[in-house]
Amino acid sequence: MTSDADSNQICSTIDDDTIELHAMRRLPEGPIRDHLGVCPSCKERVAEQRAWILDLKHALERFEAKEVSNADGLDTADGGDEEIQNEPKPKFIS
């Protein structure tokens, strides 16, 4: 088992990108991943990152739903380019 001093030293070397990878369950097996699973401070950082990712996904879903509901009511009275308005929307990977 690691001491608090060892744990703090490990915590200080873990950057936000690593936390994000772990939050998305894409961090490979290894000592850093093991640490993130047991360290209370790092677990809190991971939880905050997961909450942010979830908020972002929900915002994207609301945006896409609003975009779909507005698609039927596009205002073309201003002579807008119909070809551009009918372009397929990009799909995001969740």
Structural class, please?
A: mainly alpha
**Proportion of beta-strand residues:** under 5%
| Rough outline | elongated
Tell me how many strands there are: 0
- Give unreliable regions as ranges: 76-81
Q: How helical, in percent, are the residues? A: 55-70%
Number of continuous helical runs: 5
Description:
With 94 residues, the protein is mainly α. The chain has a domain at 4-67. It contains 5 helices and no strands. It has helices at residues 4-13, 16-23, 31-38, 40-71, 82-85. Helix 2 crosses helix 4. Residues 76-81 have low confidence and may be disordered.
Question: Can you give me a brief rundown of this structure?
Answer:
This protein is an all-alpha fold and 94 residues long. It contains five helices and no strands.
Key terms for this structure?
94 residues, mainly alpha
SSE inventory with pairings:
Blueprint: H1 4-13, H2 16-23, H3 31-38, H4 40-71, H5 82-85
